Every structure is written in C-alpha cells, then in structure tokens.
What we know:
By secondary structure, this protein is α+β, with helices and mostly antiparallel strands. The chain has one domain (7-177): Hotdog Thioesterase (Thiol Ester Dehydrase, Chain A), CATH 3.10.129.10. It contains 5 helices and 6 strands. The chain has a 6-stranded antiparallel β-sheet with strand order 1-2-4-5-6-3, with helices on both faces. A hairpin with a 5-residue loop joins strand 5 and strand 6 (165-177). The radius of gyration is 16 Å and the shape is globular. It starts with 6 loop residues before the first helix and ends with a strand. The mean pLDDT is 92.
Amino acid sequence: MDTPHDPQETLRAWQARADELQGRHPRHGVLPPGELSGRSGLKTFEAMLAGDLPSPPIAQTLDFMLVEADTGRAVFQGRPRHEHYNPMGTVHGGWYATLLDSAVACAVHTTLEPGVAYTTAELKINIVRPLTDRVPLVRAEGQVVHRGRRMATAEGRLYGPDGKLYAHASTTCFLFDAAA
C-alpha cells in the first residue's frame, strides 16, 4: 500500500495513472479462451496494462481498472459513484467486494503458468468504514500469501489516497489444469 505523504499529491498521481491507462484501453471485452492459452497470468495482465488485451466489461460497468500487476500482486483503482449506492446512501458492499475480489484473485492469477486456471473457493471481506462519492478514488491492492500446487491464498486492502482503510479481504483459490 502506498503511504501517502500528501493526499492531494497521491490523488493527482492516481488520476494521472488512470488517464494514462484509459488512453490505452479503447475497448472492453471478453477474449475467447484460446486467445489466452500459452500466456502466463502475469503476461496476460501485462498485455492488459499495455492495451493489447481489452479490459473486462465489469470494469466499465463499475468504474474500476487494473493499474498495476507484478508476480503475486495486483492493484485495481476505482471511482465510487452515486450509481454504486445502496438505499442508505453509501457505496454498496458488493462494490467493495468486487474491487477486493479482483485484486486478491488477480494477485493469484499473476502467479499462474500457461495452462493453469483457478477458481475462487472463498472470499471474505470486512468493511471497516463507509464509502461515498466524496472519496474520489480508492485502490484495492492484493498480495499472495501462499501459492501451492493446488491452492493459493491472498489478502487485500481497499484504501483511499489519504491512506484510510475502507475494507480488507482474504481469498482461497483452487488451482487446476485449464484443459480439465
């Protein structure tokens, strides 16, 4: 997680990264499975960040994007909007969960060799602070805790440019042969 010295400076840097990536992502879409065969998980995310592969449609629907990926780590950035509100006037827990699920599951995905797939077996989130559209951007950062042959676990945090924690999560993923 970034440790912001100046929340406004952090926000400007995050917005600049979003602007840079949006220029590379003219489209959203789902690729046929054959398009991804032969690519490791990390190579897939590098291609997305470069704009060579489309962003998934849910990123457009919920206004979030992948902003960083390294082996065992994935970072998504999202813009909480009024459209994400629940009846009480705060961002719905499903929005938190989607960003955190993306971060923790994709952190696991970055560790996969070509031909290996995964599915989420468990996702647990704790929301520790309400979120509204007064917070301009948040980041969900996922980090692998354990990667075995058939199972992986990861943890993640959702935080604002001022460093405030809004939620945290953990996941367990089953790994399997993609051809199975």
